[in-house]
Specification:
Blueprint lengths: L8 E3 L1 H13 L5 H19 L5 E6 L3 H15 L3 E6 L6 H12 L4 E3 L11 E5 L11 H13 L3 E4 L21 E5 L2 E2 L8 H4 L1 E5 L15 E3 L19 E5 L6 H13 L4 E6 L4 H7 L4 E4 L3 H7 L5 E4 L7 H11 L5 E3 L2 H8 L8 E3 L3 H8 L3 H6 L1 H12 L2 E4 L5 E3 L5 E3 L12 H14 L4 H23 L10 H8 L5
Parallel strand pairs: 1-8, 2-3, 2-5, 3-4, 5-6, 6-7, 7-9, 10-19, 11-12, 11-14, 12-13, 14-15, 15-16, 16-17
Antiparallel strand pairs: 1-10, 17-18, 18-19
Helix pairs in contact: 2-3, 3-4, 7-15, 11-12, 15-16, 16-17
Length: 494
C-alpha cells in the first residue's frame, strides 16, 4: 500500500478494532497513549474550526469515547479554555476510568446529568458520549441530553462518530447528535459516508494519530472512498464513431422528459452518437428541443430491433413504463446482448421477472427499487446499505449503484466504492435519468462497467455540487448539471 493510501479506504468497526489491537500488541503503543493522542488531535481540530472559542462543554460517556472526552477537557483547561464536563454515567474500563481520574486530579469537576441540569452557554459542544461500539438507539435519558444540546444552537464537535450514528451502516435507529464536524481516529468508518449518516456527521476529518504506515500494511478496508478523476483527452484524430453510440429506450405516454434527460446526459457525457427509441408523440418535442438526439418512433419490438445493430450501449428504463409497450421493449433490449444501463422501470420489470444479466451491465436503483429487486422493504435497505448493494450485485451479476446520500457502487465480487459528493438540492425529479445517460455514455466510450459506474456517479454528484455552489441547493433542477458535467469531464472545475 502506498503512503497514505489507507486514507481513501473505509473500514468496518471490527476492522478498526483490529487496527487498535495491532497498534497496541504489535507496535507497542499502549491504549491509554492512543487515547491521549486522540484527545490532542481533537483539541487541534476544535481550535482549527472554532479559533475564537473560549468556552466548551464536553459530554463524556462511560467507555473509551468518554475517556477521549475527559482528556480533551483536561488539555483544553491547560490551554486556557473553560471546559465543563457532563457525564450521564460512571466510567467503565481501565483507560476510560484513568482518563476521568486524571481530569479530576487536575481540578476538573464532573457534573452528573439529569433533566434538571441547565446546560451552560458555550461556544462549542463536544460529543464524547458513545463511539463506534453503539449500534442501538440511544437510551431515553441520553436522547433527552442530545435534544438539549441541539436546542442551544451552539456548534458540535463529535469525537470519532456522532453518538447514535451506526458507524458500520450509516443508519440512525433513534435520536443522534448532529455534528458540525466529526474528527474520526485511526481509520475512516464506512458508515459515516452513506445512508442518513451524512446528515449527522458534518465535515469529517480523519486523524491517524501519528501512527506509522506499517499499521495499515495488509489491512485492507471494506470499501473505498471515490477520488476525483476523469477520462484522458481524446486523440486529435478522433471522430464520432470512436466514442460509441448510445440507444436510450423509454418515454412512454407522458414521459418524454425522462428519456430526453437521459439522452441529453449521454451527449454531454461524451457519447459520439445518441439515439432515442420512444413513442411517436414525442418526436417533434425531442427534435425541437435537442436536434442532436436522433429520435425514432418505436411502436414495438420489431421497430426497436431495427435500431439495435447500430448501437454500442443501451440505456433502458427512463419513462419506459411497465405496460405492454415497455415490457416488450425491455425484453427485446435484454435479448440484444449489448452492454446496458438499467434504471427506473427497467429495474421494476426486472424485479417482476428476475434474471442474471449476461452482458456488462450497470443497474442504478434508488432504495425503493432496490427493495423490490431484493423482495424486502426500504427499511431493510436503509439498515445496511452495504449488504444490500453487495447482494444486488451478486444476485444479478451486474455492477450496481445504490443511489441516495453517499451513493454506493458494488460489483459481483463484493468490491464497494462510496461517493462523498452530492447535496440535498439533487433530491428532485430527473436526476436519476441524467445518471443513466452519463453512465451509458462512459460505457460507450470504452469504460468497463465498474469504471463507468464509479466515474459516472462521481461526475454526476460533483456536477450537482458545482451547480449548487453557483446558484444554491434549493431550486436546483436536473438540467442545471449538464454544463458543470461537461466542465468536469474535461478536467475543469469552473
Amino acid at each position: 500500500m502506498t503512503a497514505h493510501a489507507h486514507r481513501h479506504e473505509l473500514y468496518t468497526v471490527d476492522q478498526v478494532r483490529a487496527l487498535d489491537r495491532r497498534a497496541i500488541e504489535q507496535l507497542g503503543i499502549p491504549g491509554y497513549e492512543l487515547m491521549q493522542r486522540a484527545a490532542a488531535a481533537a483539541l487541534v481540530c476544535l481550535r482549527q474550526h472554532w479559533p475564537q472559542a473560549r468556552r466548551t462543554a464536553v459530554y463524556c460517556g462511560p467507555g473509551n469515547n468518554g475517556g477521549d472526552g475527559f482528556l480533551l477537557a483536561a488539555l483544553a483547561r491547560e490551554a486556557g479554555l473553560h471546559a465543563e464536563v457532563f457525564a450521564p454515567a460512571e466510567s467503565r474500563g481501565d483507560d476510560a476510568t484513568r482518563a476521568r481520574r486524571e481530569f479530576e486530579h487536575g481540578g476538573g469537576i464532573v457534573n452528573a446529568w439529569n433533566d434538571a441540569v441547565v446546560l451552560p452557554a458555550v461556544d462549542v459542544h463536544v460529543d464524547a458520549l458513545y463511539g463506534t461500539g453503539l449500534q442501538r438507539a440511544l437510551a431515553a435519558d441520553v436522547a433527552a441530553l442530545v435534544r438539549r444540546i441541539h436546542a442551544t444552537g451552539a456548534p458540535v464537535l463529535a469525537l470519532d462518530v456522532p453518538s447514535g450514528v451506526n458507524a458500520d451502516t450509516g443508519d440512525v435507529p433513534g435520536e443522534a447528535v448532529q455534528a458540525d464536524v466529526t474528527v474520526t481516529f485511526i481509520a475512516s468508518k464506512r458508515g459515516l459516508y452513506t445512508g442518513v449518516a451524512p446528515g449527522y456527521v458534518g465535515a469529517v476529518q480523519l486523524e491517524s494519530l501519528g501512527l506509522p504506515e506499517t499499521l495499515w500494511q495488509n489491512a485492507h478496508g471494506d470499501a473505498e472512498l471515490m477520488q476525483p478523476w476523469t477520462l484522458p483527452p481524446r486523440p486529435r484524430q478522433s471522430h464520432k464513431g470512436n466514442n460509441g453510440h448510445v440507444l436510450a429506450i423509454g418515454g412512454d405516454h407522458g414521459t418524454a422528459g425522462a428519456i430526453r434527460l437521459c439522452g441529453e446526459a449521454a451527449l454531454r457525457g461524451g457519447a459520439g452518437l445518441v439515439s432515442v427509441a420512444t413513442r411517436a408523440e414525442h418526436l417533434i418535442a425531442l427534435n425541437s428541443a435537442r436536434p442532436e438526439l436522433m429520435a425514432h418512433d418505436v411502436n414495438g419490438p420489431q421497430a426497436l430491433e431495427a435500431l439495435l445493430p447500430r448501437a454500442t450501449v443501451l440505456a433502458v428504463g427512463p419513462g419506459l413504463g411497465q405496460g405492454a409497450w415497455g415490457h416488450a421493449l425491455w425484453l427485446t433490449a435484454l435479448d440484444a446482448h449489448l452492454p446496458m444501463v438499467l434504471d427506473a422501470d427497467g429495474l421494476n420489470l426486472l424485479a417482476q421477472e428476475p434474471r442474471q444479466l449476461s452482458v456488462p451491465a450497470v443497474m442504478t436503483p434508488h432504495p425503493g427499487e432496490a427493495a423490490r429487486l431484493l423482495g424486502c422493504d426500504t427499511a431493510t435497505i436503509g439498515a445496511d446499505r452495504f449488504a444490500a448493494v453487495r447482494e444486488l450485485a451478486r444476485r444479478y451479476q451486474a455492477v450496481v449503484v445504490l443511489k441516495g446520500a453517499g451513493s454506493l457502487v458494488a460489483d459481483p465480487e463484493g468490491r464497494v466504492a462510496v461517493c462523498p459528493w452530492g447535496n440535498p438540492g439533487m433530491a428532485t425529479g430527473g436526476m436519476g435519468d441524467l445518471l443513466t445517460g452519463i453512465v451509458a455514455a462512459l460505457l460507450a466510450q470504452g469504460c468497463d462497467a465498474w469504471q463507468a459506474a464509479t466515474l459516472g456517479v462521481s461526475l454526476h454528484a460533483r456536477a450537482g455540487d458545482l451547480a449548487a455552489r453557483h446558484g444554491g441547493e434549493r431550486g436546483l433542477i436536473a438540467t442545471d448539471l449538464l454544463e458543470p458535467l461537461r466542465l468536469l469531464l474535461n478536467g475543469r472545475e469552473s
